[in-house]
Amino acid sequence: MKSLIKKLCFISSLFLASVLNAQIEVKVNTLFAPIGIYNIAVEKPITNKISLQAEAFVSPWKSFSGRHLQMYVGTVEGRYYFKENMKKWYVGTYVSMAAFNLQKWNYWHDKRVLDENGHPEVLPDGSFRVTGRYQKGIAFIFGISGGYHFTINDRWGLDLYAGIGTTQSFYKGYFKDNNQRYEGATKFNKSGELIPTRGGLMLTYKIK
Fold first, then answer.
1. Neighbouring-strand partners of residue 114
2. Distance CA 179, CA 182 (A)
3. Taking phi first (over 0 means left), then psi (-120 to 50 degrees means alpha), and beta for anything else, what does residue 36 get?
4. Which CATH entry fits the domain spanning 2-207: 1.10.10.350, 3.40.1790.10, 1.10.3130.10, 2.40.160.20?
């Protein structure tokens, strides 16, 4: 499944770039690149106010500050510009598919492990077992977005944007110290959340 998601990310990043019979815009997220997380996109006009964007988000970190942070996300977004394409304010809607191996924000801190009776597990040396937890799985995201496209000159610009959506996840949870399941589900856990799922400041370049 992870290899499939990687392929989808790659395809989504190149899909619009392969259509060279009209102006397109390529982008890179300046907020994530300095820490080795790659977020690239290609946007293509459909009409004078509507565009289609394909985007790939790749976080390759097996460990980042001691936490799991691997994510592979492919996104397709439709945008409506109030003035004209790639200028000033816009709104959009998007769909994403993701594969992940990470620690959710509420699992960042190591905690004591409890036994089946609710008591702290004791290690052979007499200390309590303390470890982190991480999650592996896939997610489907549907959301709405908005932003502002700044024009620097006829080729360069900046795209400031954010998005919020419903995230439907299917995952398994594991202890970090032995990679065994920490929850009682026999197959996958399921969760649904309404959370911010996209955002950044893209440096853009038009290919004419």
1. 120
2. 9
3. left
4. 2.40.160.20
Confidence (pLDDT) at 6: 57
- Select from 77, 71, 106 the least CA-distant residue to 12: 77
How far from the centroid of its chain's Cα atoms is residue 91's Cα? 19
Question: Model pTM?
Answer: 0.79
Q: Mean pLDDT, consecutive 10-residue segments, the chain of 208 residues? A: 56 52 84 92 93 94 84 95 93 96 82 82 85 90 96 94 94 87 82 90 92
Enumerate the domain spans of the chain. Answer: 2-207
Q: What is the 3-state secondary structure (H, E, C) of the chain?
A: CHHHHHHHHHHHHHHCCCCCCCCEEEEEECCCHHHCCEEEEEEEECCCCEEEEEEEEEEEEEEECCEEEEEEEEEEEEEEECCECCEEEEEEEEEEEEEEEECCHHHCCCEECECCCCCECECCCCCECEECEEEEEEEEEEEEEEEEEEECCCCEEEEEEEEEEEEEEEEEEEECCCCCECCCCCCCEEEEEEEEEEEEEEEEEEEC
